[in-house]
Amino acid sequence: MVSWDRVVIAYEPLWALAGTGRSISAEQVQDSMEIIKKWVKTNVSPEVAAKMRLIYAGTINEKNCGSIIEMEDVDGILIGSTSKEPKFREVFENCAKVQKYM
To answer: Taking the mean position of all CA atoms in its chain, how far away is CA 56?
Structure first.
């Protein structure tokens, strides 16, 4: 049996694959996560939708990470190519400032 509180869904827009550097607004990320959560609620169950975690895996940088992580249905972010750059520290620090998880 699946333990849904251990399930994490990572969403990355198709056009953001392969490190294109193109990003979307935090509101667009929220809209996408809301669609995913609504689909799970309808097609699996409301309990599963409430327990599962959604992370955003599109373009994350030091400028957009804070506003994305603040979105209601975003439970985390997946940092890809930015993790290899010196600005990764800024991304980490900017996310740490968000009070959502404190």
So the answer is: 2
CATH number of this structure's domain 4-101: 3.20.20.70
In single-letter form, the type of residue at position 83 comes to S
Domain ranges of the chain: 4-101
Mean pLDDT (whole number) for 41-47: 93
Question: How far apart, in whole angstroms, are the C-alpha atoms of residue 41 and residue 91?
Answer: 32
Q: Say how far residue 75 (Cα) sits from the centre of its chain.
A: 6
Q: What confidence score (pLDDT) does residue 102 get?
A: 47
Give, for 28, the enclosing helix (H) or strand (E). helix 26-43
pTM over 0.85: no
Residue given tokens 């935090």 in the structure block: 26
Judge whether 66 and 97 are in contact, CB under 8 Å: yes
CB distance 87 to 61 below 8 Å: yes
